[in-house]
């Protein structure tokens, strides 16, 4: 499976994007995304990851894994973990609404509010997560490889 996090708007507080399934011949929109802002140099917990292609695996340890196991007991197999990001650790795909909910991770949502004159945010995060998580986690659990490419457009 091939995913793309297409970043279309980089603001002072957050970066907005689209999560696309690009596995087939046509891209399929999955949801909106939100990350921390771009910074020339990394600031811990306040910087989005570099553009590039990364593998996603399941992380089955840690506090978020336990929390999501309790919150989504019927579907949770492990956290969606973006691996081998230079100078970053434990980058996850999870729920949240604004830059206060992420420390470099990719948040998913069904709606987006612009980050040009405001901070930017996403809404409907829980619904988006419940929709996209099984699409990705079930493939990983079946032994398939999943990759995500972060692309900067704005």
Keywords:
154 residues, alpha+beta, 8-stranded mixed barrel, two-stranded antiparallel ribbon, 2 helices
Structure explained in plain terms:
- The chain is of the alpha+beta class and 154 residues long.
- It has one domain (2-152).
- It has helices at 63-71, 125-141, and strands at 2-10, 14-21, 28-36, 52-59, 79-82, 91-94, 106-109, 111-113, 121-123, 146-152.
- 32% of the residues are buried.
Provide a compact summary of the structure.
This protein has 154 residues and is of the alpha+beta class. The chain is built from two helices and ten strands, in the order ββββαβββββαβ. The protein is 17% helix and 38% strand.
> DSSP strand (E) fraction?
35-45%
Are there runs of 5+ residues with pLDDT below 50, and where? none
Query: Which strand order does the major sheet show?
Result: 1-2-3-7-6-5-4-10
Structural class: alpha+beta
Largest sheet: 8 strands, mixed, barrel
- Count of structural domains: 1
Q: What is the string of helix and strand elements?
A: EEEEHEEEEEHE
Taking the alpha carbons of the first and last residues, their distance comes to 25 Å
Describe the secondary-structure layout.
Blueprint: E1 2-10, E2 14-21, E3 28-36, E4 52-59, H1 63-71, E5 79-82, E6 91-94, E7 106-109, E8 111-113, E9 121-123, H2 125-141, E10 146-152
Parallel strand pairs: 1-10, 6-7
Antiparallel strand pairs: 1-2, 2-3, 3-7, 4-5, 4-10, 5-6, 8-9
